[in-house]
Amino acid sequence: MEELLLSTADDVKHLAYAIDTFYFLICGALVMWMAAGFSMLEAGLVRSKNTTEILTKNISLFAIACTMYLLCGYYIMYSSAEGGIFPSFGGLIGGENSVDDVLSGGEDGPYYSMRSDYFFQVVFVATCMSIVSGAVAERMKLWAFLAFAVVMTGLIYPVSGYWTWGGGFLSEAGFSDFAGSGIVHMAGAAAALAGVLVLGARKGKYGKDGQINAIPGANLPLATLGTFILWMGWFGFNGGSELKMSDIDSANNVAQVFVNTNAAAAGGVIAALVLARLWFKKADLTMALNGALAGLVSITAEPLAPTALTATIIGAIAGCIVVASIVMLDKVKIDDPVGAISVHGVVGIFGVMVVPFTNSDATFGAQILGIISIFAWVFIASLIVWTILKAIMGIRVTEEEEYEGVDIAECGMEAYPEFVASKK
Question: Which domains does the chain have, with CATH numbers?
């Protein structure tokens, strides 16, 4: 009988390990699909003459993120001493769990594959880098951007990731960020802000007498499709961060996270649309799209603890914040074609700071420490890298190339060619 019970217990562990690994991989695939969402969103919000280049950036940055995180980023983030500031440096992602590791580890043993963990984490890195892409669109050199992506995904993000999810000093201090409002989204916005400040605004965006000239995107249906793709992918982003679903409590938690993620996005859309109607006297689609993303970013720091109604309210506040932030950043001449700094940065800070209202284990002091530490590290490190790249290779295309569109200058092809001449 004892042998039978041991055999049954082992079978249960095998099954739970398989379920949690499979869930991790599926959520990772959902987050990977967000790369398509960012591509479509950004392609829709830039002018047609810059579409090919921004699509090239998005697929290239994803490949670079996967490679750099494999080579060194994952090791930096998860192979360093607990409670530290300075990470260990090394390469690759280590060995896989053995059957003995799983069966003999007890409650503290591994319950999902190490390879599934790497896959889930690497798509977060790519998401962080995708935020930078839209903010510097329409005037940055492609190869300067890709060079920055190497440093961002291989070093800058993994270091602050070690401080938090890797068990570093912010984790020890009690900083709470369930799926990355600050760790992923604010970090990407900090890098983007540094790039925008070094790069400067697009030609014609701001007049000499202070006027702000709107530069509308070329394809709002594409931008809307991208937003829906991101909305869908976010269920993997937040849901997968529960890390487990093979028991009743974990499964219930995953369901709550899904419901709250959806509720916050809906609240963000409604609030942004209503505020835009009151402020601009029009139902502004781009603000509604950014409202959805703002709601998603705001709930990412704590999608489990709130009720669904509270999550809706958090998303609604975020939807109002993002509209005001986009307007305010324009007034101080920070040119962000897709609103990425507002959506991911300003709202990311809000998402982190609202956590203690629903999670009693979080403190405002730890949350503030986390925001300051992550933002300062990513912004300063990024500013240094952008400045070095500017000195070595230049980061901005020429005025003529910007006028004609970076598609031809950087990629040699147009996304929407009006006609193709051919000889008979």
Answer: 2-411 (1.10.3430.10)
